[in-house]
Design brief:
The chain is α/β, with parallel strands linked by helices. The chain has eight helices and twelve strands.
Length: 253
């Protein structure tokens, strides 16, 4: 089974479309999403509509922020999630959406689980310890206590997003970026956490979208270019979205 695993789309329709085009060229049989379909970006409704077609999707903290109240968000992220909620609450956007679509989107977000388990792997947004909100950064390899506690909850492998920084953690306190792995990694007997990166807002210094393909026990990182200037201009045109949210797309930060 070849599975594409995406995360952190963040309302970036151009990035999502480019990634889906790449996925469809890779003989992928299933698509899993690790949350944060919305937030930050200018096309939340369209991204939700695409995610509803995926084989599995879990809840991200921005998805929950739209459903309830954002907690621990920066001021820019909070303004963006309130604007996103307004788009989801609008029953008629440019005459193309109706109340049924609106209800389907809310129902979809409200039904998303926080954890998905498949054989010896689990899929979360944040971490195995706190599936919704915990960040696991590359520098956490120096925090042995934190990693020990998280790995203690993992049977074999955990796929996650949230930080927007792709790479693989081993239970030997090691982190390897996709560059260090030459884009591919075979999962062994040891435990690992696999951060799949971000489709809509990469933060590892590479502006291209990032996702992974899982084929049996091999993880392959894929980087995909997309017309980011189109997304940036959309963000600039929406007063409620901070221009910084567009600027950072160009920087990959």
């Amino acid at each position: 089974m070849r599975r594409a695993i995406v995360s952190d789309i963040h309302g970036n329709l151009e990035a999502l479309q480019a990634v889906l085009e790449d996925i469809h060229s890779q003989n992928v049989e299933e698509i899993f999403c690790l949350g944060d379909i919305i937030g930050y970006g200018p096309n939340p409704c369209e991204c939700i509509d695409s995610a509803m077609q995926f084989d599995m999707c879990i809840l991200g903290n921005h998805d929950q922020g739209a459903l309830f109240d954002p907690e621990g968000f920066s001021s820019g992220a909070e303004r963006a999630i309130f604007w996103t909620r307004e788009q989801l609450e609008s029953s008629s956007r440019n005459g193309e959406d109706d109340s049924q679509q609106q209800a389907q989107r809310w129902s979809f977000l409200g039904s998303l689980p926080r954890v998905h388990q498949l054989e010896n792997a689990i899929f979360v947004h944040g971490s195995a310890r706190n599936p919704l909100n915990e960040y696991v950064f590359p520098e956490d390899v120096y925090n042995n206590r934190k990693l020990d506690r998280i790995f203690g909850l993992i049977e074999s492998h955990c796929f996650q997003g949230h930080t927007h920084v792709p790479g693989i953690f081993s239970d030997e306190y090691r982190f390897q970026s996709p560059q260090e792995l030459n884009g591919k990694h075979r999962l062994g007997r040891g435990k690992s956490m696999i951060n799949v990166g971000s489709v809509g807002q990469p933060r590892d210094g590479d502006s291209r979208s990032c996702y992974v393909i899982l084929d049996e026990d091999q993880v392959e990182y894929r980087r995909v270019e997309y017309p980011l200037d189109t997304t940036v201009e959309k963000i600039y045109s929406i007063p409620e979205l901070d221009n910084f949210l567009g600027d950072r797309l160009r920087e990959g930060r």
